[in-house]
Specification:
5 strands; DUF218; 2 domains; DUF218 domain-containing protein; Rossmann-like_a/b/a_fold; five-stranded parallel beta sheet; Cell_Envelope_Assoc; Rossmann fold; 220 residues; alpha/beta
């Protein structure tokens, strides 16, 4: 008997959609100097990075990421390593890819990428920062804090919320991580890890309701 695809509980759908839409930056994609794929549990990062390379959006692609508790099972050799393997298998030349296998958070993703580009004498005045969909806003805010002079465009593999949940195969994981990334918008700005971002009242209310409902495993 076929298994039903994972589904967002009806009573939480509106709040999940509100957070999902908030974290998308809705940037227009255009050619840049470097593409940067941020490691996570989501292979969609490697997919969009590969697609945009083939569209001529950048000549150099960086994948950055070690492992985290949420990724070790999916990418046992490390996030950046698996992303690189996917990109090469789908036609990206190996010599167009640089990888950082040590970064364990978004700040390190940015710092290590800058160092890697400097080491390889690649000038980056503009970048496309590719992440899981609900990491876009936090990735943007982190990059602008640590690399303020670079022009940043955010992108993710273009899936609807429901298709994304199906691709991950774990509704609870997606909802918990959406809540966790929302918490980090304010928290990381207060800690100096990221620039401040406006959080609308309806987003704050949706976040609070999901916390009260117990979607808290990714809270700091």
């Amino acid at each position: 008997m076929p298994t039903n695809p994972p589904a967002i509980p009806a009573e939480h759908r509106a709040d999940v959609e509100r957070l999902w839409n908030y974290h998308h930056m809705h940037h227009e994609i255009r050619p840049v100097d470097v593409g940067i794929g941020l490691g996570s549990h989501d292979l969609g990062v490697a997919k969009i990075a590969t697609d945009l390379y083939h569209q001529g959006m950048y000549p150099t692609l960086v994948f950055t990421g070690a492992n985290a508790p949420t990724t070790i099972g999916t990418f046992p050799r490390g996030e950046a390593v698996h992303y690189r393997e996917y990109a090469i298998a789908h036609g990206v030349p190996a010599d167009a890819i640089l990888i950082d296998t040590q970064a364990k958070n978004t700040g390190q993703n940015i710092e290590h990428t800058r160092a890697l580009l400097t080491e390889n004498q690649v000038q980056a005045r503009s970048v496309i920062l590719m992440s899981r969909p609900y990491q876009q806003r936090r990735a943007y805010a982190t990059c602008k804090q640590l690399w303020p002079e670079v022009d940043v465009i955010c992108a993710s593999h273009p899936l609807s919320l429901d298709d994304y949940v199906t691709s991950i195969g774990d509704t609870r994981k997606v909802m918990d991580m959406l809540v966790g990334d929302t918490q980090r918008i304010d928290m990381y700005a207060e800690l100096g890890f990221a620039i401040p971002q406006h959080v609308p009242d309806d987003v704050r209310a949706a976040y609070s309701r999901l916390v009260d409902a117990g979607y808290t495993s990714r809270l700091v």
